[in-house]
Amino acid sequence: MPNSDDAVPKVNLEKPVGNDDLRGQIAGKVNLSKSATTPSGSEAGGPASDLRPASVFGPVSGLNPPPGYYGGGVGVVDVPNRSMRLLTVAGLLVVAAVALFGIVILATKHSADGTATGSPAVARPAPAQPCATPPEIAVHSLVMSASGLTANVELTASCDSGDVITDQHFGVTVTDGSRDVAAGAFDLRADPIVIPQGGTVERAFTFPPGMFWRTSELVSSAEATAEPSGSAGGGGGGAVSNGATTLIAAQPIPPRYATVDDAALSSLRDLAAVDRGAVARALENLWVPQISSKRPGLVAEGLEWSAADILREHLSLRERYSDVRLVWSGDWSTFNGPDWWVTVVGEASADPESAIRWCARNGLDADHCYAKVISSTRGVEGTTILQK
Q1: Which spans in the chain are helix H?
Q2: What is the DSSP letter of 218?
Q3: Which band of pLDDT confidence, cut at 50, 70 and 90, is reported for residue 122?
Q4: Cβ atoms < 10 Å from Cβ of 202
Q5: Fewest CB atoms within 10 A around its CB: which of 118, 315, 330, 335?
Q6: H/E element holding 370?
Q7: pLDDT tens-digit profile of 319-365?
């Protein structure tokens, strides 16, 4: 690269410079007879008047450099034409606008039909359709509450098309091995169950008192079975939205393995067996509030009591008060008969007055609450104190 001493000599721009003058000024720097010589006007493609701007270069005659070029000591330097630059920028802007418009069109098409241009359409799953066979039900947990026994379950359609269940009488039974846990019919007309293709849904089936026989503590491995009535309540195959997630059985249905009374009696025996250890450890030979004693066939309170009635009352008391226990009178020596189902509260004390105060504090009268000693060594005498 030439140093500063070899640079093009300054030209006085305030007055016209002839060819001879200009040649004289640059003769020592440029050999005009060689290829670097500025071409004539005819070879350059236009007169010297095409040079611009005149206010910068001054009127130059005779050299006739090509439009847009200025011959210097280092060769030919490109001076872009301003109009050409403007046209180039404008062209680029037009290209960018067209490209942006195309992107917008493609995005609009993609959002409208879910596909990109040139790509195959993405298949959407068809709406779920009613299935001819009942869904599979997996029980995740059982929860006791004042409302009853709630089974939290997951339902899976037995058909590839999914399922839409709108039965008026959708039966669900819950079992633990060969033991009946709960059974009830659910009206799904207002709360349909929609199971998508290849998917599952979760529901909470609640069985009110009288429709379940075992508490959650008595169940080791719960299984549920659906028994649709086949009477759909409408909506079959149409657009049906999911209903409530918690469903309450509208009416009882027979348990799977036994009668209602047999299922209740089985549960009473198991509850008393489980509670016997707790009574022996913490309550034996102490005074406790006794809040019920019933046996099948007893007529009281306008009812002939069955095993199902006794179980329903006991489970209700178990939910209402804390630390309630079930006692089978045949296991203890302080009861008059061996076949009573007795409900007591684990508020043990050394004197009967504490148990009597518990009865009064909870608003239970003398017919429904009194002080009782539970023992396997004492006799009946002196082990019962009634409220005054």
Answers
A1: 19-26, 41-44, 54-57, 82-113, 260-282, 307-320, 352-361
A2: G
A3: low
A4: 11
A5: 118
A6: strand 370-373
A7: 999 999 999 999 999 999 999 999 999 999 999 999 999 999 999 99
Q: Across the chain, which distance is largest between two alpha carbons, in Å?
A: 150
pLDDT tens, 193-214?
999 998 999 999 999 999 999 9
Nearest to 181 by CA among 149, 205, 204: 149
Cα(181)–Cα(256) distance, integer angstroms: 9
pLDDT of residue 189: 92
DSSP assignment of 221-232 equals SEEEEEE--S-B
Task: Quote the CA–CA distance of 67 and 172 in Å, as a whole number.
Answer: 95
Dist CA 214 CA 222 (whole Å): 11
Of 130, 133, 229, 144, which Cα lies nearest the Cα of 187? Answer: 229
Q: What is 261-385's CATH number, 3.40.91, 3.30.1490, 3.40.50, 3.30.70?
A: 3.30.70
Residue 241 backbone class (left: φ over 0; alpha: ψ -120 to 50; beta: rest): beta
The answer to whether 348 and 323 have CB atoms below 8 angstroms apart is no
β-strand pairing of 200-207 with 246-248? parallel
Vertex 201: Cα angle to 242 and 155 (nearest 5) = 120
Percent of the chain's residues with pLDDT above 70? 64
Tens of pLDDT, residues 172-192: 999 999 999 999 999 999 999
CA distance 239 to 226: 23
**Closest to 279 measured CA to CA, from 356, 361, 376:** 376
Each domain of the chain, given as residue ranges in start order, spans: 4-78, 136-253, 261-385
Torsion of CA 229, 233, 238, 244, to 10 degrees: -90
The answer to whether 374 touches 279, Cβ cutoff 8 Å, is yes
Whether this model's pTM surpasses 0.90: no
Answer for the pair 67, 49: CB distance below 8 angstroms, yes or no: no
Residue-level pLDDT at 308 = 97
In whole angstroms, give the CA distance from residue 359 to residue 387.
Answer: 8
Pairing of strands 384-385, 370-373: antiparallel
Q: How far apart are CA 359 and CA 207, in angstroms?
A: 30
Q: Give all strands (DSSP E) within 157-211, no chain letters.
A: 163-165, 170-176, 179-186, 193-195, 200-207
* CA pair distance 353, 338, nearest whole angstrom: 27
